[in-house]
Amino acid sequence: MTGPGPSTVACRNCGALNEAGFGHCIRCNRPLGDAEPADKARRRVPAKRRRKGPGALTGPGAEPFLGRFPAEQLPGVKLFIMLNAMVFALQLMGALTRGADVGSVVGSSGGAYEAFLYGAMPKWRFMAGYSPLAEPWRMLSACFVHYGILHIGMNMYGLLQLSRLVEPALGTVRYIIVYVVSGILGYATSLAWALLPFVDGGMSGGASGAVFGIFGAVAGLLWRQGNAAWKGYALRILGSFALLAVLPFGLDNAAHFGGMVTGALLGAALSGGAPRPSTGWQRALAYLLLLACVAAIVAPRFSPYYPLMLEFIGRRAQS
Ligand SMILES: [Zn+2]
């Protein structure tokens, strides 16, 4: 996944991070002609002014999250990275206490029981006697479960790079909405796709649907502002999708696709083309979604399907 590279520049008007190729600022839509390299701008702005103060890195209308955390400090993405890391740590500890092979959880394909225990989503034909409809909240909990250190590492790296553009541009409240809704609809797409008889539905987990949502949001934001750079960015997103789709890793490409489309639509819908404070219903929705994330992380512990899962992996180990 390609995030902003060394070509990032800071807008002189609002301080938002941009890619040099955008031409106009992704947040305030002013021309970036005189923008300076992002690292240079950051060195020049005194730390105090960076946190608050007019102009600097807190742009017009982008209010701090919960009244305290400016979007430039990325409170939203930090929160999601924390939740993902927490669930991964729980998976490792779960494998340790069960006496299972921890290496397989750190590695890649193993740890199916721990993945299920902490929220991964089995699809229709994964195991007899289980239907995803029985536990629809797994469409959200699966967003926080990863298969191996490389999987979570890549997802979190891509997420951080993309969020440096999107969170300050949308504001943290709308960023949270895009992330969570893209994640859920990514797995909804994955379930719908797996209804097709020729699709081999396994168990799914990972933040990549949500990450693709944030990726798509960049194109949606640029499009809504009438910024011609949206076409080039959309091609880049489709290129990344295609690249991951041809890799032989058994990735959940349907989830990537659903997340990407959702993120692009939400990015366009929620951006007003100019920075402005979040509305009351947007704040209410964002807080509700965060609560849902916490509930979805806790919920799998109460699933009645563990005996079935244990039996299933036991059978698979014997065969
Ligand atoms: Zn700007």
Description:
The structure is a single chain. With 319 residues, the chain is mainly alpha-helical. The chain has helices at 38-44, 47-51, 75-98, 102-106, 112-117, 138-141, 149-170, 172-193, 208-224, 229-246, 253-270, 280-298, 306-318; strands spanning 8-10, 17-19, 36-37, 121-122, 203-204. The strands form 2 sheets. It has a 3-stranded antiparallel sheet with strand order 2-1-3. Strand 1 and strand 2 form a beta hairpin. Helix 8 (172-193) crosses helix 9, helix 9 (208-224) packs parallel to helix 11 (253-270) and helix 10 runs antiparallel to helix 11. The two termini are 37 Å apart. It binds zinc ion. The site of zinc ion has 8 residues, from loops.
CATH homologous superfamily - what is it?
A: Rhomboid-like
Which parts are unreliable, with pLDDT below 50 for 5 consecutive residues or more? 51-58
CA radius of gyration is 20 Å
* Overall helicity: 55-70%
Instruction: Give the averaged pLDDT, no decimals.
Output: 85
Q: Helix/strand/pairing class, anyone?
A: mainly alpha
Helices and strands, in N-to-C order? EEEHHHHHEHHHEHHHHH
Domain module count: 1
**CATH level 1 class label:** Mainly Alpha
Ligands in the structure? zinc ion
- Strand order, sheet with most strands: 2-1-3
Quantity of strands, as a count: 5
In the CATH scheme, what's the topology name? Rhomboid-like fold
Largest sheet: 3 strands, antiparallel
Tell me, what's the shape?
Answer: elongated
Count up the helices: 13
What percentage of the residues does DSSP assign to strands (E)? under 5%
Q: What is the rounded distance between the termini? A: 37 Å
What is the CATH architecture descriptor? Up-down Bundle
